[in-house]
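General statements about sequence and structure are easier to judge against a single worked case. For one protein, we set the task of working out the C-alpha cells from the amino acid sequence alone. The sequence in question and its C-alpha cells are set out directly beneath this paragraph.
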Amino acid sequence: MAGWILAQVAVTLETSLNLPGWFDTAIVSTLLLGFPVALILAWAFEITPDGVKLALREEDNQDGRPLSLLDILLIVGLSLVAIAVGYQLLSKSRTAPESSLEQAAAQLIPDADTSIAVLPFADLSDTGDQEYFSDGLSEELLNVLAQVEGLKVASRTSSFSFKDRSQNIMEIATLLGVAHVLEGSVRKSGDRLRITAQLIRASDGFHMWSETYDRTLDDVFAIQDDISNRILDELRTRIMGDVPEVQVARANVTAFDLVLRAREVGSTYSVPGHVAAAELYRQAIDIDPDYATAYAGLAAVELLNSNARGAQGRRPIAEVAPIVKPLLDKALELDPDSPGVWMRIALYRQFTRDLDGAEAAYKRAKKLQPNTNMTNYAVLLRQQNRLNDALGILERELETNPRSPAVRFGLVSGYVSARRFDEAQKIVDAMYREFPDLKGNFSPDFAQAEVLLAQGQWAEAIKVLEKAFEDSPDVLPIKFQLGFSYIALKDYPSAYAIGEPLLSTYLTGVTGNPEAALNNVLPMLGPGTPAFLYGASMFMAYLNGDYAIIADKIILEWPTLDGLRACDDSEFIFNFAAASYRELGRQNDLDDLMACWSELIEVRRRNGYDSSEEWVERAGYFAFRGDKESAFDALQKASNPALTVTEIEVFLRAMSLDQDPRGRAILNRHYADINRERAKLGLDAVEPPQ
C-alpha cells in the first residue's frame, strides 16, 4: 500500500514540477523490484513487542491454525495492488500516449529530428527592466542557429509567443513542431552578466546540456559564440554529423545594447515605435560607425514608416527611398553576407517597386540563412500575380512559423482571393484561439472581416471592423477597410465620421462633386505615390468626364514596375483607362491596352485567382472586346460585385452595359444585397439610380 501511494505521488510530482518523463517510471520500477523482497521479508520475519524476529515455523505453531480471513484478504489485496501498478507501468510503456497532445508530440518531435526553438530568456535582473536585453540575446542566438544548413529553427514570432508561458516544454515543442528547445535566463547588473542556458530534448525532457556564465558585458559576444557552438556540438554528436562552427558578429557593446532597445520599441509595428527605434539606431551608428546591423535596422524602420504598400506610415516612399538607399549600401559594404541586410534590401526594392530585384534579394537572404522568414516574399509574389506560389510559400512558412499572425493573415487573404472560404475560415478560427487579444494589421478581427466581406456579409464584417478600429484607431488598412465598407452600403455619414481625409475626398467625389475631389487628389500624385491614390484620381476623373487627364497624365505616370508596362500592375484600373481611350477615339492605345489586359487576366486565371473582384475585371475585358454575353456571365459569377471599391453602377456605365436589361437586373441585385445588409444595421433602404 505504501508503494502504491509512492507511485501516485511520483506521477503528480512529474506533472506539477515539469520533471523528466522517466521520473515516475524509475520510481515505479524500483517499487516493483522491491515488492518480492518485501514479501519474502514479511513472510520470514515478524514484528513483536521484543523487536523483529524470525516468524514461527509451522511445527512450532502450537495452535496449528490455518490462515485467518484477515490474512487472506491482506494477501489478495496486496496482490491486486501489485497487478494494478504493474499494469499501469506496462500500459504506459507499450501503448500510445493517452492525450492528444502526447500523440502529437510522438509524431512531431522524434528524437532524431534536427529542429530547435529558442525561447525568450527570462529576465532575472533585480530591477526587472532588462527584458529588452534578454529578448535580444535570445534573438541573436536564434539568428545564428538559423544560418546552419539542415537545422530547422522555429521563427522568432512563434518562439516569442510563449513568453511568460504557462505551458511545459513538451507542449511548446509540440505546438512549434520541434525536437529541441533552448531556454535560459539573464541577470544583468551594471556591466556584470549571469547567463544560464540549457538545451532540452523535448520528447522526454532530458537536459542535453546546460551552462552558467558569470562574465562582464564585454564578453557577451563570446558567450553567444559558446552557447551556439555548444548546441551544435550536441546536435553534431547525436544527430547532424559534421556542421561548421558559427560566429556572432562583433560590435561595440553600448551600440549593441542600443540596437536591442531599438528592436524592442520597434516591435510594436506602430509609427511612434518606428520613430523611437530610428533614434536609437542613429545613436548606435554614432557610437559604432561600422555596425552593419544598426544601418540595416534604421533602413527598415524608415521604410516601415513610409506610405508604401505594406508599410504603416504616411511619409511618401519617394521621400524615404533616398534616405534609405545609402544606409543599405553602407550595411552591405560592412557585411556583404548578412542575411538581415539582404532582407532589408529586398524590402527596399519591394517598396520602390523593383520586384525582380526584390525577388533576387530574398533568394540571396534565403541562401545565406535557410530559416529566413519569407512572409514578405509571399507578398511580393502576390504583387506579381503569382497567387499559387505565394500560398505555397506561406504554407511552408507555417511549418517553421506556426505562431505568426502575419503568416496566418497572408494565408487568409490568399485563400479569399482563390475563393477557398472554408480554408480561410479555419485559419481565422485558429487565430481567435491562439491570439484572442491581438490587435492591429494582423488581428483575428481584421482577418475575419476579410472573409465576411468576400462572402457578401457586409453588416457582420462592419461590426467586426468597428471593433478592430476601436482597438487600433491609427492603423490605416483597418480605417480604409471600414470606410469603404460603409461606402459599399452607401452609409456615407458613417464613412465621413471616421475622419480620414482621403476617405472624405473620395466621398466628395461619389456624392456629387468629383471635380473638387479630383482637384484634391491630383496634387498628391508624383514619383513613389501609392497606386491606390492613382486609382482614386482615375475614378474621380472618369466621374467628372476628364478623360484626357486619365489618358495623358494618370496612365503615363502610374507607378509602374521596373521594366514593365503600367497595365501589368494588378492594381491598375483597366475599365476607366479603356473607357477613356474609347471616349477620346484613341483606338491604337485601346488595342494595346486590350492586349496587355488579356495577358494579365490569363496570368491571374492560371494562378488561381477566383474572387468577385476578379470576375468584375474579366467582365470589363469581355465588354470592351464586344462580347457582352461573356461579360454578363462573368458578372453573374461575381457573386458579390459591391466589394469593388467603386460603385457597380459606374462600372456598368464604363463598360456600356448599363442600358442593357441584364445590366439593370445586376444593378437591382446589387441594391437588393445592399438593402439586406443595411437592414441588419438598422438603416433604411436605398433606391437604385433610374
Notes: Residues 14-18, 57-64, 89-112, 642-646 have pLDDT under 50 and may be disordered. The longest helix spans residues 69-94.
